[in-house]
Amino acid sequence: MTPSLTNYSAAMKKIPVTFVLVGGGHTFQALALVDRLHQHVQPAYIGFKDEHISEHKIRIPGPYFKVLSSLREVRKKNLLSLFRKALPFFPAVVQSTRALRKTRSRALIACGGGPAAATIVAACLTGRSVIYVESLSRTQTHSLVGRLSYLFFADLFFVQWKEMLKLYPKAIWAGRLF
Question: FRET label pair with 93: which of 22, 49, 75, 113, CA 20 to 30 Å apart?
């Protein structure tokens, strides 16, 4: 964590933090973190225009922004398929950057999922700390966004299974979220 984030916490009591709500289990994990941290953070949320359930699952109120989704699962392994899936990535980075500026958050917390990739990149471009929690479902293998976040973007990287420390040796293991 950056020193400015620590100083901000001491002065303001609650740190403004944006949580990425990708959908399904990823949203469940992110909201479990909000439940645990809500006394220390002022949450804001970034969801995706093609996912309509996450917004209704929020229990701790905060601003909610919808952006374009990026990097959904690529089933075909050919170059054309990858290009088509990656095409929305750049507009998603622009929309995520705008949303992050409106939140005025100091950090972004993501719990996995391909659609979060553009928001993670936008957080880095806007100088926010990135905290990445590898998905609970990852017990033996990397995820694409997890691997990229670990190598290039995350200021803090958490795994939920001790066995994952073999794949991410500099990660922090703090147990499961629930």
Answer: 75
Q: Is residue 30 part of a domain?
A: yes
Contact 130, 46 (CB under 8 A): no
Task: Give the pLDDT confidence score for residue 9 in this predicted structure.
Answer: 47
pLDDT of residue 72: 59
Domain count for the chain: 1
Report yes or no on 99 lying in a domain: yes
- Would residue 46 count as lying in a domain? yes
Least-confidence region, from 6-15, 98-107, 110-119, 124-133: 6-15
- What pLDDT was estimated at residue 4? 54
- Whether 2 maps to a domain, the answer reads no
Residues 43-71: tens digit of each pLDDT: 999 999 888 899 999 999 999 999 987 66
